[in-house]
Write a structure and sequence with these properties.
- It is a single chain.
- About 35% of the residues are buried.
- The chain has a three-stranded antiparallel sheet. A three-stranded mixed sheet has the order 6-8-9.
- The chain is about 40% helix and about 15% strand.
- With about 375 residues, the protein is α+β, with helices and mostly antiparallel strands.
- Helix 1 crosses helix 2, helix 1 packs across helix 3 and helix 8 crosses helix 14.
- Strand 12 (about 330-335) and strand 13 (about 340) form a beta hairpin.
- The longest helix has 23 residues, at about 305-325.
């Protein structure tokens, strides 16, 4: 096998070791920062990771306490602390700053140890508002256990954090030892959702086989605006034409803005944003541009629209994945607005997207309307 001589997550675990040649105090500080990075793998750049100070795995050698290490990391601008926590309700939130991430990556190495995977029970955490468990939720453990390393895997990523992420997620999926969470919008969170796209290419449904293919919704949020009924009927045709022609983010971008920047700004408007950052209600330039083009649609948006779009997306995508697995016997996993499957099954997945009037980059010109 191409990866037989390299550390293999099926037989090896991975941990991040901070350089032992560093001064003991600085090593303990970076150990704290590294732990926050590992706990915040899903969205470390945007959300606070809530950890009790006593949970940090640091041996007190007498030089520095856990609180002292966190205070020093804050002083060195390696982390940021959310001081709005409520005593007795939830712990402080920690966020690693770019300087902290760079310091950990520069002063650490991945360490691999022989460690056989042991089967565990998955901890299901369905949302209490749902009367019944979602069928898709029950599919996940068995599907994730069937994932193997693809033909693209020959050695672990060089980045210590990325190596740890890949090994940890893979071993959790194979063992079943993870917490599976369903949120208010029926999105399912598991180790696979914590993996970066660069690491997902190392996954396949067959050992040493082709990497998983990804079929995702093109212009997902604008599409869901139509599906959920938030686009005014008199503006729906132009809105849909921009999506189907692949020009929605591009044509509604500000001069000089990239597609990525335009996408971020427009999607923030769907979540009730798009106003001045000074605390006022002055519309941003992007919001003004959208309002000029679609006054009735943008003028009626509220902050709750973003949640409604995710729920609409979940109801459509969950049904597609259930049909693939239960009805057609095709292994497929939902990843928010995308479906991961074997490359040979892409055609079937795309056909179900077309049936649901969902545009994808794989689509033929057959899709003429979104409703």
């Amino acid at each position: 096998m191409p990866f037989s001589k390299a550390p293999n997550p099926s037989f090896h675990s991975c941990r991040i070791r901070i350089n032992r040649d560093l001064p003991e105090k600085q090593r303990l500080i970076l150990k704290c920062v590294s732990y926050i990075l590992q706990r915040g793998i899903y969205s470390e750049a945007h959300q606070f990771v809530r950890i009790k100070s006593t949970d940090f795995p640091i041996n007190n050698s007498g030089l520095l306490t856990r609180c002292g290490a966190l205070s020093s990391a804050l002083e060195q601008k390696l982390i940021y602390i959310d001081n709005t926590y409520l005593n007795g309700s939830f712990s402080k939130g920690y966020r690693v700053l770019p300087k902290g991430r760079e310091a950990v990556m520069r002063n650490s190495v991945p360490v691999f140890s022989s460690n056989k995977i042991e089967a565990e029970e998955t901890d299901f955490c369905p949302h209490p508002f749902f009367n019944d468990d979602l069928e898709i939720e029950r599919m996940y453990p068995e599907l994730l256990r069937q994932l193997e390393l693809s033909s693209l895997y020959d050695q672990p990523p060089e980045c210590p954090l990325e190596a740890w992420r890949l090994f940890s997620a893979f071993r959790q999926m194979k063992s079943g030892g993870y917490r599976l969470v369903v949120d208010n919008q029926q999105r399912v969170y598991c180790p696979l959702t914590n993996m970066r796209k660069e690491s997902r290419r190392f996954l396949s449904f067959t050992c040493g086989g082709p990497p998983l293919a990804e079929v995702d919704i093109s212009y997902s949020n604008p599409v869901m605006m139509i599906k959920a009924g938030f686009v005014d009927r008199w503006e729906k045709r132009e809105w849909g034409d921009l999506i189907l022609s692949g020009r929605f983010y591009e044509e509604l971008a500000l001069p000089g803005a990239s597609r990525k920047q335009s996408k971020q700004r427009i999607n923030s408007i769907f979540n009730g944003g798009g106003f001045s950052s000074k605390g006022g209600r002055e519309p941003s330039k992007t919001r003004k541009l959208l309002t000029e083009r679609f006054p009735k649609t943008i003028g009626n948006l509220s902050k709750s629209v973003g949640c409604s779009l995710m729920l609409e997306e979940s109801q459509i995508m969950n049904e597609i994945v259930c049909r693939l697995n239960r009805g057609l016997g095709i292994k497929a996993i939902r990843l928010h607005d995308a479906v991961l499957c074997d490359p040979k099954d892409v055609g079937v997945v795309v056909s179900l997207f077309e049936e649901a009037k969902l545009p994808t980059k794989h689509q033929s010109a057959a899709l003429k309307t979104l409703s």
